[in-house]
């Protein structure tokens, strides 16, 4: 009887030891840092909205669709810094943060500004670029929009959830906003009298005007209240992930404006 009890206790002890060992293994697996997880799968999954040239856009090369843009050049450098491949997930701008929060992407590289509201949903890197915003109207109406007061009750088109939307709401609270997912839609809205003006950054304005010569920049320019464009990572990201991203930004920040100029040649009129 005593031997049987001893055998039962020994068997149960073995089972419990195995259970704790497996739990410990699982726990250790979960302790991988953000950078370690990316390196383990060998691919950095990046979300962007490829509708804002020259930052990110689609380019047709002999019938083959390619992604181009200054942000894509930065992604390549970050992936190289991490010694992994990269994968791009293209979506509307307002879908990027939800995709990051749900784990569908590892980070956002899409000229996103770290606003206080966004900082509740994500961790941000150092700023890698800052631009000025400008109002664009029909060329025939330039004189009408020579002063800010003309925009007081105007219909203004901006990208949904963008810093330009926030700037418009701050300086022109009575303006009627029309929100879109792609910058080309802003230009079409103004060109076809669906909006009086649009607010975009200067490089985007220049490219949209090239494609839509009936439009023109006003003299009404506004800086973002935010620090500029930064990379969004999941909330509470590990230090090694942030360090890897910031190291790449520090290394290549001086080249970003050169990439913008280089990418302009791929934007078709």
Automatic annotation (TrEMBL):
| Top-level taxon of origin | Bacteria
Q: Which keywords, in A-to-Z order, does the entry hold?
A: Signal
In terms of SUPFAM superfamilies, this protein maps to: Periplasmic binding protein-like II (SSF53850)
Gene3D superfamilies referenced in this protein's UniProt entry, alphabetically: Periplasmic binding protein-like II
> Start and end of every Solute-binding protein family 3/N-terminal domain?
43-262
Q: Which positions carry the signal peptide feature in this UniProt record?
A: 1-23
Cited InterPro entries: Iontro_rcpt_C, Solute-binding_3/MltF_N
- Which is a Gene Ontology cellular component entry for this protein? membrane
- The answer to keyword Signal applying to this record is yes
Residues in domain Ionotropic glutamate receptor C-terminal?
A: 43-262
Spell out the PROSITE patterns in the cross-references: PROKAR_LIPOPROTEIN
Question: GO MF annotations for this entry?
Answer: ligand-gated monoatomic ion channel activity
Quote the PANTHER family the UniProt record gives.
Answer: ARGININE-BINDING EXTRACELLULAR PROTEIN ARTP (PTHR35936:SF17), MEMBRANE-BOUND LYTIC MUREIN TRANSGLYCOSYLASE F (PTHR35936)
Protein name, as recorded: Amino acid ABC transporter substrate-binding protein, PAAT family (TC 3.A.1.3.-)
